[in-house]
From TrEMBL, chain B:
Species this protein is from: Companilactobacillus versmoldensis DSM 14857 = KCTC 3814
Transmembrane intervals: 32-54, 92-117, 129-149, 178-199, 227-245, 290-308
Name listed for the protein in its UniProt record: ABC transporter
One matching Pfam family: BPD_transp_1
Similarity field: Belongs to the binding-protein-dependent transport system permease family.
BP terms from Gene Ontology: transmembrane transport
GO cellular component, one term: plasma membrane
Membrane topology: Multi-pass membrane protein
Keywords: Cell membrane, Membrane, Transmembrane, Transmembrane helix, Transport
ABC transmembrane type-1 domain location: 92-304
CDD domains in alphabetical order: TM_PBP2
Primary location group: membrane
Length: 362, 314
């Protein structure tokens, strides 16, 4: 049975809307990521599903039950907090057993489930330790074990990895993903990190300004973003968004600096175009042909990112091979040889790219 | 750009060279070095704590005249006399009862109020202010206020029992009730401070712990006993130590409310020390009692640190 959010809103006393008319369906057993910049309401939404924050409007249904007025403990779910919320005075084992004890399970069942959960996160040897004697990653695993030990089939995670360093985070991505698949958990995961969202999710919900921007699979969201916000939120370095002007039926002048041949005809006189950094080319050019100047070059190993300033204003990033030699302050010419993947937006930021048979739900 | 670090290095080198000339060097290994820091507090402590303490110990081994001058050395005779005196043992006994009752009542009531006031309810700020108000009340004011309350003809309790057609309780004249009256007053006085400290401690428990517990299905009473209590145990430990020591040293309220009476029912150690010294002029006896009280308080403090601290640290 899916979890269904219908027209969910959250409004605080001062009339400030934190969430506006959010609807979505989260299928059983899927990895659902809610992503957005800080302050977009994503944590509030998760807390509303958990029952820790009241719902102002709309309904939340979990497994065919409207849970709007149910206390958290009756919603049959578990939650992993950003701060881990471990009890500092309890051992790892007792931390994991806390919920099972609170729900009055018999001792044998508690022992089995806790031992099992600790084994699953590779913490059996640490069961007698106190949380303060563990590293950040281990604490995170205790929090995971607590979620695993519970009977609940729905697990909510609120930025669980944001306190870990980059390498550990990647490792934990894989562990969480593997756990979710193994246990068939319905996982609702909140993050501000687009990489986390892309790598783990079955479906992503993008939130901004308290509204849903798009819900879709990672591929849909990356290739067919509903609007400029979604396009710029996913991808590193972010997509280059520029003003464009119609020159002829399928030729556009981008930022007054270079022309692009489009894969479709356009009606709008003025519009916006989004080209990912790896779809652009940079060539050294003399003063006459140059349309940009290099500001900085970042070396990433396999590739370099060239940050340039266009002659008519605006900053563009281009990915080039790491062997290419470019220096700051060089004059260059930026071109787009294959613009079939360029994204077009109207002046309000909505995607107007024609898609060939690929549907995306906005 | 590249030159900056080099020049700054040179500059800092120059600086350190020029500094060396003027700085009066204090060597941390120097024998007298630590005295600079310890000196002032040692002086003050010595003058106002250690000297009186040792002087009291000294006097307790002598007989004294009415001016407090030592006359005949008696060794431990003063102590033997005291311990064999039923009167003193009574004081010791009532003090222990008083300390026990005051500590238990102060902590449980303070905890109860603090837990209530930590809930997010409308108008809770008013209650927080009310509950912590006794912190601003002086002992004299509290004593007079409660004397009015206990007054057998016009007091609040008398009025209530009259209205309910009950026999009024003789709060301050009945030996059994006098102790209760003093305990009530002390607990009332203590409550403000205890409440405030415990409230602060309860509020500093991370919200997410309760939220996690709520999601995991823990009832609110379970949350109190399994989260709040262990999380604030260091503060509880601190507050109980303070309360016990304070109760042992209780003087003002007793002097103002019962004067140790009736029939020595509330004649606590400190009040006794005061009376023996300044009413009877028996400085040797009162010094001996003071030393015994010091030993008792030190003993309790030691026990608390030895046994409780291990349990409350996480």
């Amino acid at each position: 049975m899916p979890t269904i959010l219908k027209n969910v809103s959250k409004e605080y006393a001062q009339g400030k809307k934190v969430l506006d008319n959010v609807s979505a369906e989260i299928k059983t057993g899927e990895f659902f990521v809610i992503v957005g910049p800080s302050g977009c309401g994503k944590s509030t939404l998760l807390r509303m599903i958990a029952g820790l924050t009241e719902i102002s409007d709309g309904t939340i249904k979990i497994e065919d039950r409207v849970v709007n007025d149910l206390p958290p403990k009756d919603r049959n779910l578990t939650m992993v907090f950003q701060s881990y919320a471990l009890f500092p005075f309890l051992s790892v084992w007792d931390n994991v057993a806390f919920g099972l004890k609170a729900r009055q399970n018999d001792a044998a069942k508690i022992k089995e489930r806790v031992d099992n959960a600790l084994k699953m996160v590779n913490l059996e040897e640490f069961s007698d330790r106190k949380p303060r004697e563990l590293s950040g990653g281990q604490r995170q695993r205790v929090a995971l074990a607590r979620a695993v030990a519970s009977d609940a089939k729905i697990c909510l995670m609120d930025e669980p990895l944001s306190n870990l360093d980059a390498q550990l985070r990647i490792k934990m991505h894989q562990e969480i993903y593997a756990l979710q698949r193994k246990l068939g958990l319905t996982l609702i995961y909140v993050t501000h990190d687009q990489v986390e969202a892309m790598t783990m999710a079955d479906h992503i919900m993008v939130l901004n300004d308290s509204k849903i921007q798009q819900v879709g699979t990672p591929t849909e969201i990356y290739n067919h973003p509903a609007n400029e916000f979604v396009a710029s939120f996913f991808g590193v370095p972010p997509i280059n968004l520029m003003n464009a002007k119609k020159v002829s039926e399928n030729i556009a002048l981008v930022n007054k600096d270079f022309e692009v041949e489009l894969a479709q005809t356009i009606e709008e006189e003025n519009f916006r175009i989004g080209i990912r950094p790896n779809q652009l080319q940079v060539n050294k050019a003399d003063e006459l042909h140059a349309n940009a100047t290099i500001k900085a070059v970042e070396f990433l190993g396999d590739e370099k990112i060239v940050h340039t300033e266009m002659n008519h204003g605006g900053v563009i990033s281009v990915i080039v091979a790491s062997e290419a030699v470019f220096d700051p302050f060089e004059s260059i010419e930026i071109t787009c040889d294959d613009s079939s993947k360029a994204l077009l937006f109207d002046l309000d930021g909505n995607n107007i790219t024609e898609t060939q048979g690929v549907a995306y739900n906005a | 750009m590249l030159k900056t670090p080099a020049t700054s290095e040179v500059a800092s080198e120059k600086k350190s060279v020029s500094k060396k000339k003027f700085v009066f060097r204090l060597n941390a290994n120097d024998k007298y070095f630590s005295m600079f820091f310890l000196g002032p507090s040692l002086l003050l402590l010595g003058l106002f704590v250690f000297y009186p303490l040792f002087k009291t110990l000294y006097i307790s081994m002598f007989l004294t005249d009415t001016f407090g001058n030592t006359t005949v050395f008696t060794g431990l005779q003063n102590y033997v006399n005291l311990i064999s005196s039923a009167d003193f043992m009574n004081s010791l006994f009532v003090t222990l009862i008083y300390v026990l009752a005051v500590t238990v009542l102060t902590i449980t009531m303070g905890l109860l109020l603090a837990n209530l006031a930590s809930k997010k309810l409308p108008g809770i700020g008013i209650f927080r202010t009310l509950y912590s108000m006794t912190m601003g009340v002086s002992v004299a004011v509290a004593a007079i206020f409660w004397l009015f309350m206990f007054n057998p003809s016009t007091g609040f309790f008398a009025l209530v029992s009259n209205a309910l057609k009950l026999t009024p309780i003789n709060w301050l004249t009945d030996p059994k009730n006098a102790m209760l009256a003093v305990i009530i007053t002390t607990v009332w006085m203590n409550l403000g401070f205890t409440f405030l400290i415990l409230l602060g401690s309860i509020e500093s428990v991370p919200r997410s712990l309760y939220e996690a517990a709520e999601v995991e299905g823990a009832s609110s009473s379970r949350q109190f006993f399994k989260i709040t209590l262990p999380m604030i145990s260091p503060t509880l430990f601190f507050v109980s130590t303070i309360t016990i020591i304070d109760a042992f040293k209780s003087f003002g309220l007793i002097d103002l409310i019962t004067k140790g009476g009736p029939t020595n029912a509330t004649n606590m150690l400190v009040y006794r020390i005061y009376k023996d010294a300044f009413y009877s002029g028996n400085y040797a006896k009162s010094s001996t009692e003071a030393i015994i009280l010091t030993v008792i308080i030190a003993f309790f403090t030691l026990i608390q640190f030895k046994f409780l601290e291990k349990k409350v640290n996480y």
